[in-house]
Amino acid sequence: MYRAVMEHYEKATVILKAAAVADYRPKAEAREKIKKDKGLSGIELTRNPDIIAAIGTKKRKSILVGFAMETQDLLANARQKLLKKNMDMIVANSLREKGAGFETDTNIITIIDRNGKTIALEKMTKIDAAHRILDHVKILSRKKGVRVKP
Fold first, then answer.
1. Measured between alpha carbons, how far is 24 from 32 in angstroms, rounded to an integer?
2. Which end of the chain is more exposed for a tag (fewer CB within 10 A), N or C?
């Protein structure tokens, strides 16, 4: 995924990056099937490349949007991620709030932009949340002078 994104990101005016598929992967690949009777004492992991951080170091005029799903210090962690990874906007949501996160058709999000503007939204469907995110992307695109095709 990293190679594909890095190969094409320069063509995009808006880049919305959902959460990483996995922050870590097994360090070594087994050449053969691991048999149950041989046991498995553990799996050593290595960190996957951070795609949004890599784009953030290279982006020019495009709008970079990321997501932060947290279990504690939601807004502080989201703001830190926004700045550290050079995003223009981050969508924060908590795994602790009922009706937010996974396994539900609703979400409770807070949109934060680079200028510090914070928009806390009530519980809504994920489709409505997506529309609100895109509405804010349109506002940012006008401010940055980025032409977004409808």
1. 21
2. C
